[in-house]
Amino acid sequence: MFAPTERNRTTQNIQFNSISHHPTCLLRSTAWSVETKTRRIYYQAKRPPGKVSVKFRERQTVPVLLEGIPTVWLVSPATILRNQQVELLFNKEKLEFVPATIKPRAISCLRVCYARTMDQTKLKELGLRLFEINAFKFGDFKMKVGINSPVYFDLRVIVSYPDVMNTLSELLTEYIRQIRVDMGVHLCGVPYTALPIATLISIKADKPMLIRRKEAKTYGTKKLIEGKFNAGDKCLIIEDVVTSGSSILDTVNDLRGEGLVVTDAIVVVDREQGGVQNTEESGVRMHSLFTLSYLLNVLLEAGRIEEKTVQSVAKYIAGAQIRSDGSFMKNGTKVVNELSRVGMSFEARADLAKCAITKELMKLIASKKSTLCLAADLTSSEEILNLVERVGPYICILKTHVDIVEDFSENFVKSLQS
């Protein structure tokens, strides 16, 4: 029996019949510095200590030593980044004890949070239902990041299926509670597909919601974040599908820019292409209801796809690990500039842009579907304003020559900006 205990709190018991025949459970852990004054949960093990090989999302194998009383330690500092999220999946197929030969010293302590396994029947049924309504499909698809993919997710279709929306929001709400993520004060869906999902979770969990606009309004209050909040409030992000995590990071940056605290994101599907690592580097832990690998296995077990499809997608995932800067990771090596900007969509270029002005320009080009820049070589402010009124919806940039505008004034500038 393992009994996770938290100092100054009630002991929580997890009943195991034996090490090799216990029910599946998920332990989500985050590495913390030993000196960090943070809340910690310590594991007491009434069994001989042993070393466990654990599979990471990035398919690294990392040894973890169960020292027994009173602490669980991380053994391999070379393969673990401080504060990197770890997933330990214990079941009779994947749990393997070997003699403990490495003694952990001065390694980061693990803050361990126990979560009961989600109802696998409901998860599998939802996965199959998503496939039935074409929320994801197989073929050859051009992705937002500029590369082709053998699988494509489009969760926008779920708004036409109330039963799917209800089931998904219920499972996500249950999942958030079970993994014990602090919902904080607010929820915020990444625009736009995640907005209806976040709305339903907000209602079911009785948590207020914020709405983040992709662009600030140019009229009225000109807000980027809609809703009532205070600086210092905590906000949990909700997202539908994650590839590189860039959309989550855009939302994180805007929320943090308003003084909100963001540490966690809940996603429906993780495509397992680097999103976990990229968000972790920005201080955000990503938790997914589904992974692409899990959905593939569900479809394979149900006879909806063939083994060769699973192998094809697995090969694609292994060769398409995308970093936040747009580079790829192949065989553990960073490949820079593999993506051609010419072949990328403007949305993808906006996600990868480091310059704030470039990012806004790429978004503007994408939304207006125009790359036109107009040079207004006119000498009258009235003429320029009349011209802008006619062509404004069709251009991205207006180039003026203020030195030749005979009646230039501050009001003229304000009129252009309004």
From TrEMBL:
Q: Which residues form the Orotidine 5'-phosphate decarboxylase domain?
A: 371-417
According to its UniProt entry, one GO biological process term is: 'de novo' UMP biosynthetic process
Q: What is this protein called?
A: Uridine 5'-monophosphate synthase
To which protein family does this belong?
In the N-terminal section; belongs to the purine/pyrimidine phosphoribosyltransferase family.
- The answer to whether keyword Acetylation applies is no
EC number(s) on file? 2.4.2.10, 4.1.1.23
- Show the PANTHER family listed in the entry: OROTATE PHOSPHORIBOSYLTRANSFERASE, URIDINE 5'-MONOPHOSPHATE SYNTHASE
| Record SUPFAM superfamilies | PRTase-like, Ribulose-phoshate binding barrel
UniProt lineage: Eukaryota, Metazoa, Ecdysozoa, Arthropoda, Hexapoda
Q: What Pfam families is this protein classified in?
A: OMPdecase
- Native organism: Culex pipiens (House mosquito)
Q: In which pathway does it act?
A: Pyrimidine metabolism; UMP biosynthesis via de novo pathway; UMP from orotate: step 2/2; Pyrimidine metabolism; UMP biosynthesis via de novo pathway; UMP from orotate: step 1/2
The entry lists its GO molecular-function terms as: orotate phosphoribosyltransferase activity; orotidine-5'-phosphate decarboxylase activity
Keywords of the record, alphabetical order, are: Decarboxylase, Glycosyltransferase, Lyase, Multifunctional enzyme, Pyrimidine biosynthesis, Transferase
